[in-house]
Amino acid sequence: MFSQLPNCITSPSWWQLIKWIADPIGFQQEYSQKYGDIFSMRLSGIGSYVILGHPQAIQEIFTQDAKFDVGRGNKLAEPLIGQNSLMLIDGTRHRRERKLLMPPFHGEKLQDYAEQICLITKKITSQWQIGQPFVVRSAMQKVSLEVILQIVFGLSEGERYQQLKPLLTDWLDMTDSPLRSSMLFLTFLQQDWGTWTPWGRMKRRQRYIYELLQAEIEEKRTKNNHKQGDVLSLMMAARDEQGQAMTDDELKDELLTILFAGHETTATTLAWAFYQIHQNPDSLLKLRHEIDSLGANPQPMEIAQLPYLTAVCQETLRMYPVLPAIFPRITKSSMNIGGYQFPPDTALLPSIYLLHYREDLYPNPRQFHPQRFLERQYSPWEYIPFGGGSRRCLGYALALLEMKLVLATVLSNYQLALVDNKPLQMQRRGFTLAPNGGVRMVMIGKQ
Known about the structure:
By secondary structure, the chain is α+β, with helices and mostly antiparallel strands. It is built from 19 helices and twelve strands. A hairpin with a 2-residue loop joins strand 10 and strand 11. It is globular, with a radius of gyration of 22 Å.
């Protein structure tokens, strides 16, 4: 089967797996230089994948999304987010869940969340001291965790909130390096021998999280507080066309998916944004000027409309994809994509990285240049930070809103500087990619 695929990497599959875990960006750079836009890798114990970095091939995939299975291509994530997660289901069930989950993340609801995001940011950043270095990614992780606890779970105080907060952070930090991430890819490391093994500790924390989430769901149900504005309350109140609500297991798995997909990713992108803005004084000046132009105490939704701030967020997402590639699409039947005929059960992996670093789309792709997003409108298959097709990230509008409001709130209150100016590399953190060292900065003054 593998030999039928285009441009197969010839090194042993165990070696490809090690390289993919250790440095997925370097892996793609190396083999795209050798094979071009489309090539095939084989990961020992996991399977074969065709990596695609051409916009036309990605367009062909997104416009025919119904002809692929996606959920079963995400099996690696099942131990973390459960079998009921939107990421792991296909077909009618996927459409039903997505429809039920959509309303809390769009439209007027976002305006309700905007004020909360600004307040959370102010509260956490007020603890910074002049002259005391801090790790931006850790600070942003505190912000994004608080956003999820308050806006998604509806928790801002009480015993359950106090228990969940450190538990969620510890759980996610268990895969904070390429070596520690390897247990997500190597099934022989997935042994639950209690607290003796990393996997055992991870599963134990996860079971405790599920218990706390179950208790929260039951409490919300007995209080019957569906009038609450948090995402969980809205999810509990949602009904499908048959009048059915989501089950408790579905609710818990979706909450973990939101935590997993929305917490780490936003914190990482914000860390990169602060890094690039402070590497580029012109961008910082432009941003400050644009934010100041709104006057004192602007409305959060006014901030979210600022064009240069939006372009800074878009360019950060282009340069630093949080995932090395988007969800694999598995062909249900024989298909022609990108000029190649693929047999059924071929896993196609559109690469965010290869697409976002194409010279023909993004001249000087290694240069931070937000202006490019003001000069050109990119199509949904030329720019894919949140994936695309029927599997586009459900929370993308909330993620962008959070990024803009956090950046604007920090920049209008504090003057920061990078502790050292050395170039930073992306390194694996679980399934995602984060800045090595987390971006160290120091506050040098208040605005």
